[in-house]
Design a protein that fits this description.
37% helix; 241 residues; de novo design (two linked rop proteins); elongated; five-stranded mixed β-barrel; OB fold (Dihydrolipoamide Acetyltransferase, E2P); 2 domains
Length: 241
């Protein structure tokens, strides 16, 4: 059996002396792993980096086998991370969360397109962290934990939405919050308006998406902890204000 596709590399794990097990997020075949022979060679090793876009052919005798990859580089994203620790942290957070969250061999074409768009923004524009925040929201949506921020869960109004219910992921207005406001999450304008980045808006948005990653997505995956790469990105963004 064989197929060809493309996508960004997510993880690389040493396998034997000269091979590696590589995970790639492909558009048609989802998160898929395979063995790359000669992974430690001078030709292949520089290609096998998280975030690198590769063309890949997978071959196996049976469909449920691990199989082997042949890879060809299409786009290196290493240059984007040369700008500093923040850019590298962003790329690592995306690849780690995809490896953590996605079921194996299940196509997610909408999330794939969103992922490529954000990866290509890193290092190209100063507003890429805002795109990353919306990518986290898209990831939650794809995994079945989407946020409904269109109207107040308590009153139905579309005005004055400033909170998010930590249980339902629905927006709540100031009037609808009542005595429960101290238990609600902040609804940052950065979550609902891709072009808006108010003071503390990014941190508030990541606080909210982080809650749903840790308290809704994680239990569905067997209580594995959220990848540390995500917190490293959050910490760096907080230091930058």
């Amino acid at each position: 059996m064989d197929w060809s596709d493309e996508g960004p590399i997510l993880t690389v794990r040493k396998h034997g002396e000269n091979s590696a097990i590589v995970e790639i997020f492909t558009k048609e075949h989802g998160r898929h792993a395979g063995v790359v022979r000669g992974a430690s060679s001078r030709k292949i090793a520089p290609v096998l980096q998280p975030g690198t876009q590769v063309a890949v052919t997978w071959r196996a005798r049976l469909e449920d086998h691990l199989g082997a990859f042949t890879v060809e580089p299409l786009k290196s994203r290493a240059a984007a991370t040369m700008g500093g620790r923040l850019e590298l942290a962003g790329l690592n957070a995306i690849t780690a969360l995809l490896s953590f969250s996605l079921p194996e061999r299940e196509s997610h074409p909408v999330l794939y397109d969103h992922t490529i768009a954000v990866l290509d923004l890193i290092g190209e524009t100063e507003t890429w962290p805002l795109a990353y925040l919306h990518w986290e929201r898209a990831l939650l949506e794809e995994m079945g934990f989407g946020l409904d921020l269109s109207q107040c869960a308590a009153t139905g109004t579309t005005e004055g939405l400033i909170y998010v219910s930590p249980k339902t992921g629905r927006a709540v207005s100031e009037a609808g919050a009542g005595e429960w406001k101290d238990r609600l999450l902040p609804l940052s304008p950065a979550l609902t308006n891709p072009g808006e980045w108010p003071a503390n808006g990014l941190q508030d948005g990541l606080l909210t998406t982080g809650h749903f990653l840790a308290n809704h997505l994680v239990p569905s995956l067997g209580d594995k902890p959220v990848p540390a790469a995500r917190q490293r990105l959050v910490d760096l963004l907080a230091r930058q204000g």
